[in-house]
Write a structure and sequence with these properties.
The protein is an alpha/beta fold. It is built from 8 helices and 14 strands.
């Protein structure tokens, strides 16, 4: 999961970033309205933590921008204790959920995972994702091919899940790199590490007699094909 944190309280932001980074997620910080807007235009995120009160703008206006631009990220509003109007306005504008300060990071984690399942996994409320012979356990980060455990790294697991969630979409190397390693990769001239991870994932799936659904789209990136397109 890739998360954008919109929070101008540096202490709280650092706590959130450290917690989710320790869980293996890619986290980006935008402490201001303008920085958040720039990031949302340039990059994609699975979930957005949106503080209503930003130093240079209102989070509700940013939420309207997210919806107007058809940005598909899930949105969790972070609100002050007594800001009932903000919660209602945020949900009516299109936010998926809200949490009130102060909160436990474990609860924040659970709410984000629930939003991710609803937004990205077609409302699947279980921890399991299945596609033909491929099964992913998003709680244990284990992958199986025809019931056999796939020997992959955490990044390879995230890569496989990213492909599954975006079936039949062409994903550029830049998009894959930014989603799995962070926005800083946008400035890298060499993205050979993406090719290497895709190559390793294909090889490991093949070792367990799984289908190779991943097409290389030369000059563009990769596409995970639906089963009916497998030759």
């Amino acid at each position: 999961m890739k998360i954008l944190v919109l929070e101008d309280n540096r202490e709280l932001a650092d706590s959130i970033l450290n917690f989710f980074s320790s869980e293996g997620y890619v986290c980006e910080l935008a402490p201001t309205f303008s920085e958040a807007k720039d990031k949302l235009i340039s990059f994609s995120y699975d979930c957005i933590l949106l503080d209503i009160m930003l130093p240079d703008g209102n989070g509700i206006d940013l939420l309207k921008f997210i919806k107007d631009e058809n940005i598909e990220s899930g949105v969790l509003i972070i609100s002050a204790k007594d800001a009932l109007d903000d919660k209602i306005k945020g949900l009516e504008t299109g936010a998926d959920d809200y949490i009130t300060k102060p909160f436990h990071l474990s609860e924040l984690h659970a709410r984000l995972r629930a939003i991710y399942r609803r937004k990205k996994l077609n409302g699947n409320n279980t921890e399991l994702i299945s596609y033909n012979e491929i099964s992913l356990n998003t709680a244990t980060f284990e992958a199986f091919i025809n019931g056999q455990l796939l020997d992959i790294t955490r990044k390879e697991f995230e890569l496989l899940m990213y492909f599954l969630v975006n079936r039949n979409r062409v994903l550029s190397k830049q998009a894959i790199a930014a989603h799995l390693w962070g926005d800083y990769t946008d400035n890298l001239a060499n993205l050979d590490f993406v090719y290497q991870h895709v190559k390793n994932l294909r090889r490991k799936i093949n070792l367990l007699n799984g289908n190779d659904y991943i097409d290389t789209i030369y000059g563009l990136g990769y596409k995970f094909r639906s089963a009916d397109a497998v030759l």
